[in-house]
User: Fold this.
Amino acid sequence: MNDKPAPSGLPPAVLSLAERLSGFPGVGRKSAMRMALHVLKSPRDFALSLAEALIAVKDRVSFCRTCWTLSEEDPCPICADTNRDHSKICVVEEPGDVIAIERTGGWRGVYHVLGGAISPLDGMGPDEIRIGPLLERLKGAEVREVVIATNPTSEGETTALYIARACQPFKVRVTRIARGIPMGSDLELVDDSTLQQSLDGRTEIR
Assistant:
């Protein structure tokens, strides 16, 4: 029996690159192959700069130990900014949500990135996301408001309610961004105006 793969007509190096690229979320085999062929057709400098960028991401980027967003510095520039309102913490699921909110230019508080949402079906409980570090931040007298900006999904709503209850022992106001964002969507995909209106129209969670 012949176990050798069927010939593709492409060099092994191209196939190997396409296989690596297909590991990216949302990238299928055909898209990965197009990307691999694009790299092949591009100047050598393009491939070198791409490789350098990939290595730099792994070597230089890590988590801010205060808010847990991605940063090359610790604390991150937002947490280190004395002009930000550190009495208000906006709680989001992923670092991409920080980028989305910062793009609106309307939020001058700081952030806390959970690293996901509560989803028992996916094995994600409260201990698997960074709710504990958030509560540690509330032990100081500085924080006055926690704005929950988890995604408007069933998992995001569950997480918001859990955080609201967990914050009850602390003397902080807990609010939820307004419903201008449609259910089931991700903050990263929402337009700036709608996201800003949601922040401005946030409501208190009781």
User: Anything to note?
Assistant: The domain at 12-60 is CATH 1.10.8.420 (Helicase, Ruva Protein; domain 3). Helices lie at 12-21, 29-41, 44-60, 77-80, 95-104, 131-137, 154-166, 192-200.
